[in-house]
C-alpha cells in the first residue's frame, strides 16, 4: 500500500513539516527514519486539519490522473474537451521565435531586443483542423529554464512539446536538453525540422540523428511525428499544426469548466501602474473576476482578467492563459494557484506556504541535520 512522506503531506496541506510531526507526536506516533505515513495516518492528520482526503476509484482515477494530475474525482462526470497547451523548445537560433511568430502572424522576433525572447508569453491561437478553427495555446519559453523550473516545482503545464531542430545544424546541446525535459515530464514530442529552405539543409540527417537517440520518425515506422518546415517562409506550418492537433486529440485532454479554477503561474512581475501581475494557465475549472485566489505566498481577489492581446474578460476556462490583477504580491512561475472561499482562507494558506518555504530555506542551509561533537566545539 502506498503511503506519503511527511514532506509531501506538508506540501499538500501547505504546512510546515514540524507542525505535522508535532501533531503526530502528540498522538503518540513517532514516525520512523523513513518518515513515510501510511494511508490511515495521512487520513488522521487531514481529519485533524479538516481537509478531505480524496479516496478515488483507484483504476479510473489513476487513468485520469496520468493524463492530468490536476483533476479531482468530482470532475470525472463533468469533463469537457479542453484546448492543448503547447511548448516550443529547441536549440538557440533554430527558429523557435520565428515559428511562433509565424503562427501568431505577428512580429515578435523582429521586435525582441537582441532577438532573445523576453519573459514567458502565452498565446491562444486558432488553428484550422478539418476546415474548422480550433483553439490551442502556445507557451513561448525563453530557453528551457522555465520548463525545467516549473517541472522542478511539480507543474506539468504542457501537453505537447514541439521541438525545433534546424535542418542545417542538427541536434545540439539544447535539443538534447529539450528532449530530456519532455521525456521526464511524460510529454509527447513533435519534431519540427526547420530551415529546410536553406542551402545545406539536410532533414534526412536530422532524422537519422534523432533516431539514433531513440526518436524514430513516424515515416520510418516509428512513433515520433516529424514535420519539415520553413518557419521563415511559412512552409508546411499548417502540416505541423495539424500533426500537433492530431497528437492532442489522441491525448483526450479534458477538464471540468464547472468548478473553481486551479492551475499554474506561467509568469509574474510587478507592473508600475497595475501592481503585481501574473499570467495564469487555467488547468481546471473557470476563473472569474471577483474570485479569491491563493498562489504560493501571494493571494488576493481577482480585480481584472486580461486575455493575451490585452482584452479584458470576466471569466476564462480551461487551458486559457490569462493575466491576473489583484494579488498581494508577485508569485513565482511554476506556483500553483487555486480559488478559495474567502480572503481569510487565502491569507492563511499563503502565510502557511510562506512559513513552509522559510522552513525549507532554513533546512537547506542546515546541512545534513546532524550535530556532531566536533561541530559544537
Ligand atoms: P530562436 O533562438 O530559436 O528563437 O531562433 P529565431 O526564431 O530567433 O531564429 C534565429 C535565426 O534563424 C533568425 O535570423 C531567423 O530569421 C532564422 N530562421 C528561423 N527560421 C528560419 C527558416 O525556416 N529558414 C531560414 N532560412 N532562416 C530561419
Ligand atoms: Mg527566441
From TrEMBL:
Protein's job: One of the essential components for the initiation of protein synthesis. Protects formylmethionyl-tRNA from spontaneous hydrolysis and promotes its binding to the 30S ribosomal subunits. Also involved in the hydrolysis of GTP during the formation of the 70S ribosomal complex.
Protein name: Translation initiation factor IF-2, chloroplastic
Organism: Salix viminalis (Common osier)
Domain of life (superkingdom): Eukaryota
Parent-record interval covered: 417 to 793 of 830
Family named by the database record: Belongs to the TRAFAC class translation factor GTPase superfamily. Classic translation factor GTPase family. IF-2 subfamily.
Domain Tr-type G positions: 81-254
Amino acid at each position: 500500500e502506498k503511503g506519503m512522506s511527511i514532506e509531501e503531506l506538508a506540501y499538500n496541506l501547505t504546512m510546515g513539516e514540524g507542525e505535522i510531526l508535532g501533531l503526530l507526536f502528540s498522538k503518540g506516533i513517532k514516525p520512523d527514519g523513513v518518515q513515510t505515513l501510511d494511508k490511515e495516518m495521512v487520513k488522521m492528520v487531514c481529519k485533524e486539519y479538516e481537509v478531505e482526503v480524496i479516496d478515488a476509484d483507484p483504476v479510473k482515477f489513476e487513468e485520469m490522473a496520468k493524463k492530468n494530475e490536476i483533476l479531482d474525482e468530482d470532475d470525472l462526470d463533468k469533463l469537457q474537451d479542453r484546448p492543448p497547451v503547447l511548448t516550443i523548445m529547441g536549440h538557440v537560433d533554430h527558429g523557435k521565435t520565428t515559428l511562433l511568430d509565424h503562427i501568431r502572424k505577428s512580429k515578435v522576433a523582429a521586435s525582441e531586443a537582441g532577438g532573445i525572447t523576453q519573459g514567458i508569453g502565452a498565446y491562444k491561437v486558432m488553428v484550422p483542423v478539418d476546415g474548422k478553427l480550433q483553439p490551442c495555446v502556445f507557451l513561448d519559453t525563453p530557453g528551457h529554464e522555465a520548463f525545467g523550473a516549473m517541472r522542478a516545482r511539480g507543474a506539468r503545464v504542457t501537453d505537447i512539446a514541439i521541438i525545433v531542430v534546424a535542418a542545417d545544424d542538427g541536434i545540439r546541446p539544447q535539443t538534447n536538453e529539450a528532449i530530456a525535459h519532455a521525456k521526464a515530464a511524460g510529454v509527447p514530442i513533435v519534431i519540427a525540422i526547420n530551415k529546410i529552405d536553406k542551402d545545406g539543409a539536410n532533414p534526412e540527417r536530422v532524422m537519422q540523428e534523432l533516431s539514433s537517440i531513440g526518436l524514430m520518425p513516424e515515416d520510418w515506422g516509428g512513433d515520433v511525428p516529424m514535420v519539415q518546415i520553413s518557419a521563415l517562409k511559412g512552409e508546411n506550418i499548417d502540416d505541423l499544426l495539424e500533426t500537433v492537433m492530431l497528437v492532442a486529440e489522441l491525448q483526450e485532454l479534458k477538464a471540468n469548466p464547472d468548478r473553481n479554477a486551479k492551475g499554474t503561474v506561467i509568469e509574474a512581475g510587478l507592473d508600475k501602474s497595475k501592481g503585481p501581475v501574473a499570467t495564469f494557465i487555467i488547468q481546471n475549472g473557470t476563473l472569474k473576476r471577483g474570485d479569491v485566489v491563493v498562489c504560493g505566498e501571494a493571494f488576493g481577489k481577482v480585480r481584472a482578467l486580461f486575455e493575451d492581446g490585452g482584452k479584458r474578460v470576466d471569466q476564462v476556462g480551461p487551458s486559457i492563459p490569462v493575466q491576473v490583477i489583484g494579488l498581494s504580491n508577485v508569485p513565482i512561475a511554476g506556483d500553483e494557484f487555486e480559488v478559495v472561499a474567502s480572503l481569510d482562507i487565502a491569507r492563511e494558506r499563503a502565510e502557511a506556504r510562506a512559513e513552509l518555504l522559510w522552513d525549507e530555506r532554513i533546512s537547506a542551509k542546515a546541512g545534513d541535520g546532524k550535530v556532531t561533537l566536533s561541530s559544537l566545539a
